[in-house]
Amino acid sequence: MKKYFRFEELGTNYRREIIGGLTTFLAMAYILVVNPMTLSLESVPGLPESMYMDKGAVFTATAIAAALGSILMGVLAKYPIALAPGMGLNAFFAYTVVLKFGIPWEIALTGVFVAGVIFILLSLSGIRETIINAIPSELKYAVGAGIGLFITFVGLQNAKIIVGNPDVIVALGDLADPNVLLTIFGLIITVIMMVKGVKGGIFYGMLITAIVGMIFKLVEVPHAIVGEVPSMEPTFGAALKPIFENPASLMTSQFLIVVLTFLFVNFFDTAGTLISVANQAGLMKDNKLPRAGKALLADAIATTAGAVAGTSTTTSYVESTAGVAAGARSGFAAVVTGVLLLLSLFFYPVLDVVTSYVTAPALIIVGALMVSSLGSIEWTKFEVAVPAFFVVIAMPLTYSIATGIAIGFIFYPITMIVAGRIKEIHPIMYGLWVIFVAYFIFL
């Protein structure tokens, strides 16, 4: 085992890897709560019953997809990187695809499945790795930061700290509302723990917020701690039904938008996470990521399996940096995280106590963590700053991750050519420019 995971070469041991894997689990455990709430649209009342996904089924699908992805990443790519349904991608799935486009969640899952199959083919062929390496680092960092702002915005909305306003579009909500105050309390507690360097601060912040909510009768007291694993029957296989039963329902421009968006966002989100975690762990070689193809394949398989189980795109988690900071250096840490995710399946009853007001602080803080990638962008170079800025600002303002990516990628070749840096533009970027221009014209 030690030889397979290269313990001696990496200067690590079982203790460091187990602690690292546990730390990563605690840092990302919030997704087991947030993802079911997001995909089920629980915070949006008054919708037709058919638009709501079964929260219990999504919880089980989330844990299984995350465990599978993390274990595959550890065994195949040997990186201390955990995977789970991605924040931002789940928001796009729920709030844009299902809520805004009106696409049934079953077909949305089909879109994730199709994107996952394409990911697998691209990963096996090496094309996906080539495309990711061709994208300038500044845009990769900008995509991560833009998604962070988008996630924060969703969290503020869910907590009603930010509300709609017909005169100025958005405005500050009612801060005297007890539920809003609960979120603010949770945010303060979580920030304090994160500043103090408490491992799993986001998870503990949610736990403390939920307990305080129960004390003040804002949150229901759970009927049990350990219980049966929720059935995946309501969601399992739903992604495959449209393919076999009603393929005509997939022949629409909106479905194409869904697939392309999941493709593009997961492309860049995964790349940014892999690079940031590998850099922190000292695993980068000559500015390239060894075994990148295997890491991308693990991501692709987890996405496809997760769609079949009943959850949105599974991707590499930036919270893995917490595990690396705790000492993780090998894929054994990711395997530890995967095992813990499987064990979490038996604690579903606790999910009932977690409301959107309890999870909002986690969304806001995760957004803040993701925005830190802005520091890696060369803002003094205007030709780089402009496309990066457009990526970041367009995501929350248009309420669309895909739109932010498209705008920034369209401007990048233009500003670089005008700046006389045409030789620095990879040919693939011109191909992406054409694709994104077509995206706006036709889709």
UniProtKB/TrEMBL annotation:
Membrane topology designation: Multi-pass membrane protein
Residues spanning the membrane: 18-37, 57-76, 83-101, 107-127, 139-159, 179-195, 202-219, 255-275, 330-351, 358-377, 389-412, 424-442
One family name in Pfam for this protein: Xan_ur_permease
Origin: domain of life: Bacteria
Record-stated family: Belongs to the nucleobase:cation symporter-2 (NCS2) (TC 2.A.40) family. Azg-like subfamily.
Keyword Repeat (UniProt): no
Chief place of localization: membrane
Keywords: Cell membrane, Membrane, Transmembrane, Transmembrane helix, Transport
InterPro entries for this protein: Azg-like, Azg-like_bact_archaea, NCS2
Compartment(s) where it occurs, according to its Swiss-Prot or TrEMBL record: Cell membrane
UniProt protein name: NCS2 family permease
PANTHER family: GUANINE_HYPOXANTHINE PERMEASE PBUG, XANTHINE/URACIL PERMEASE C887.17-RELATED
Origin organism lineage: Bacteria, Bacillati, Bacillota, Bacilli, Bacillales
